Amino acid sequence: MRLRSPARSGQRSPLRADLPDDRHVLDRRSWGGALQGLWLIVAARTERGSSPGRLRILRETRVIVTVRDPRWRGGRVAGDKPEQLQIRLDDDTGSETLSRYTFQEVLAAEVVVEMLAGKPIRRVLCESDEDYVIEWTDERPEFVSVKHREPDQGEWTCSTLCSDGGVRHLFNTWKKAGKRIRCRLQTNAGLKTGESEARRLAVACRDEDTATLKMYLADLKTKLSADSEEEVEAFLADLRIQDSLPKRDDLRPRVLDTLQDQMTSIGWARDRHSARFDLVCSEVHKASSADLRSHARVPSAEVPNAAAIKAQALAAKTVDADRILAALRNAEQASQRQGPSLLEQKLDCGGIGPTGIRRAAALQEHWLRTRYRWSSDLPGDTIDELRRRVLKCADIAERESRDTKKYGSAMQARLESLLASEAAAGVPAYIDEDALLGIAYDETDRCNVVWCEDFVPKAMT
């Protein structure tokens, strides 16, 4: 931030009404010995950033700040004129900091999706002693520190990992927890290679290479202010360093791509993966933003004791399966109020009632879970062959049922009969009639099966 003082000659009152929109005037105190306080109002033009709801300050935005003597009234004090300073906002660190929080929340949301897909995780606690905590069902809790590093800051060295990279903080958290937790550092930056450097340390921690770790003990004892080298060795045995993650602009699409199979295994339709992941990110953000201190100010009539206050605070910071399922139910209800999905629209167009539509959605999710478990995702595999057989049956059912424009109910009955025959003719042991019907409804979402004449899709959420 740089300060520039404009020329005084011919300077007009900064209180005039025709100031540009990005200028705001401060009427307070003078710079002299009578200075008792200064109010600084920084208001700038903003524009929508790339992420929804985020505002980014335009670079080179100028803000007008005026400082006045307290004796000034009506614009005149003998021998004194208000001094006006011009401030240029050349820095955008606020939005960059917000992006770092988004980076952290996407990483935590990835863990939540893995939890929903079956990893042995009970819950994720956000923004507590560390950026987030993974409570495993079969392992000790894992405390995770997330560090985003700008490209011009270079790689982490062993020294900077301790001073700025979160390792020292993780060490203190580990000690505070009685040395009964595991620790992880996640960063987008790389690790410096070389003798006694960060890369070799991370590999030794991962591989539990005690011989290599011993080379670091004396140096890290000083850097971490540890009591002994044995204490450092025990900490390194509980530490994992995950580096070279995608930069913050690339992280979300990369994570989404990585989680495709897991989200399918949960039963989420592929055209809703992005929206469902954003919902998880939203819940992580709410948990991260929950103010623990505010719970201490809750009236005692509402929260009668300290244990209840603590439980309420933990619930606010926790993301578990129940919380996500509740959020999904709320989102589904809102979606139903705003507009049906493509599958629902097509079945409704064909004359299939609400119960049949709900059953179809459930069968589609049943099929997606089955596909995730057994598909090789290679052309010509068993699953691919099943899809072709189901599409053939759907084609036959449609041709035999097109007496009216709303032939969906007749087509559905005929399709169920044909698929029952297909199941009897021979399908893999893990495939049942419901899975075959689920394929048909999934192909409906793919626009390969239509249930009525002249279908026109409506706007979808």
Characterization of this structure:
The protein has 461 residues and is an alpha+beta fold. It has four domains: 1-91, no CATH class; 140-258, no CATH class; 270-336, no CATH class; 342-445, no CATH class. It is 48% helix and 11% strand. It has helices spanning 93-116, 158-163, 167-176, 198-207, 210-213, 217-223, 229-237, 248-258, 260-266, 273-289, 292-295, 306-317, 321-338, 342-349, 354-374, 382-401, 408-425, 433-445; strands at 2-4, 46-48, 55-57, 61-67, 83-89, 121-126, 132-136, 142-147, 182-187, 239-242, 318-319. The protein has a six-stranded mixed beta sheet, with helices on both faces. Strands 1-5-4 form a three-stranded antiparallel beta sheet, with no helix packed on it. Strands 2-3 form a two-stranded antiparallel sheet. A hairpin with a 6-residue loop joins strand 2 and strand 3 (55-57). The model is unreliable at 1-100 (pLDDT under 50).
Q: Can you lay out the helices and strands and say which pair or pack?
A:
Blueprint: E1 2-4, E2 46-48, E3 55-57, E4 61-67, E5 83-89, H1 93-116, E6 121-126, E7 132-136, E8 142-147, H2 158-163, H3 167-176, E9 182-187, H4 198-207, H5 210-213, H6 217-223, H7 229-237, E10 239-242, H8 248-258, H9 260-266, H10 273-289, H11 292-295, H12 306-317, E11 318-319, H13 321-338, H14 342-349, H15 354-374, H16 382-401, H17 408-425, H18 433-445
Parallel strand pairs: 8-9, 9-10
Antiparallel strand pairs: 1-5, 2-3, 4-5, 6-7, 6-11, 7-8
Helix pairs in contact: 1-8, 1-10, 6-7, 9-15, 10-13, 14-15, 15-18, 16-17, 16-18
